[in-house]
Recover the amino acids of this structure.
């Protein structure tokens, strides 16, 4: 189920940091209007950011763009997992530049060009760890200095991989209504005209909203939700692939197999063998 996450900023900061120790990494498709920078330690599995699906190791650093659906499907690899997450409001850097801090302009341009986000090299992730630790210490000014140093470190990473796509536009209430309906019913047979009627939209408006805000079509977005659920079932259950397909909302085996291979680079069985066997064994 894809959920919109609501974030409250602390009163003494214009951005937020979350630090989770000895905690699991739940599989939960979600999105929010802030940039997210996540450092995952002591876990491994699959990372989903927009339409990018890739494995990650025990020291992983990723940046997620505003309103981009994402989740991690992880299991412990080296002790208890530890996760640091920075939430940066969409227009935070823009506001600083407009206030006169023109030195931040190169960072603003870099961030704006990332599209859906980026993933970074292991060496950068290891260097970033000390910056996250500094951000977690008391004192807003040292934490802010560490945040700016982190952004500079990410910008300089030659091994960083942009994830493409384009940044989403400010949220639209009609989009929230549409996405909420798809999130609740993606396992059911859905037709574009039926969904548009339920959401009080014309089919053309529905298509435009998804293209403008999510850079995708109706069928592609629906496929993404269903494939994410299928990946979750394959790595967390022993259900036969045929039942996984049905529970994820696919009524055609050939279409499911083609879509799954295109999305992950693996067949459903190969995906389960690679990413689910330790958890299920």
């Amino acid at each position: 189920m894809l959920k919109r996450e609501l974030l409250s900023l602390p009163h003494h900061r214009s951005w937020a940091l979350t630090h989770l120790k000895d905690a699991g990494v739940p599989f939960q498709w979600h999105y929010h209007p802030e940039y997210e920078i996540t450092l995952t330690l002591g876990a491994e599995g699959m990372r989903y950011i927009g339409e990018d699906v890739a494995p990650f190791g025990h020291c992983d650093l990723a940046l997620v763009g505003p309103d981009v659906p994402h989740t991690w499907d992880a299991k412990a690899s080296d002790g208890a997992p530890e996760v640091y997450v920075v939430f940066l409001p969409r227009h935070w850097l823009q506001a600083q530049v407009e206030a006169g801090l023109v030195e931040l302009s190169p960072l603003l341009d870099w961030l704006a060009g990332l599209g859906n986000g980026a993933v970074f090299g292991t060496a950068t992730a290891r260097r970033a760890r000390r910056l996250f630790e500094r951000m977690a210490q008391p004192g807003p000014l040292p934490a802010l200095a560490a945040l700016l140093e982190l952004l500079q470190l990410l910008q300089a990473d030659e091994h960083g991989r942009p994830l493409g796509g384009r940044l989403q536009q400010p949220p639209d209430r009609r989009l929230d209504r549409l996405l909420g309906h798809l999130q609740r019913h993606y396992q059911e047979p859905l037709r574009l005209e039926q969904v548009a009627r339920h959401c009080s939209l014309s089919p053309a408006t529905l298509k435009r909203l998804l293209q403008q805000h999510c850079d995708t079509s109706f069928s592609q977005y629906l496929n993404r939700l269903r494939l994410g659920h299928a990946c979750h079932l394959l790595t967390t259950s022993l259900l036969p692939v045929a039942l996984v397909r049905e529970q994820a909302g696919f009524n055609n085996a050939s279409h499911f197999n083609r879509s799954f291979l295109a999305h992950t680079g693996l067949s459903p069985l190969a995906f389960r063998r690679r990413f689910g066997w330790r958890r299920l064994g």
Q: What stands out?
A: Residues 235 and 274 are 9 Å apart (CA to CA). The two ends are 26 Å apart (CA to CA). DSSP finds twelve helices and eleven strands in the chain. The mean pLDDT is 84.
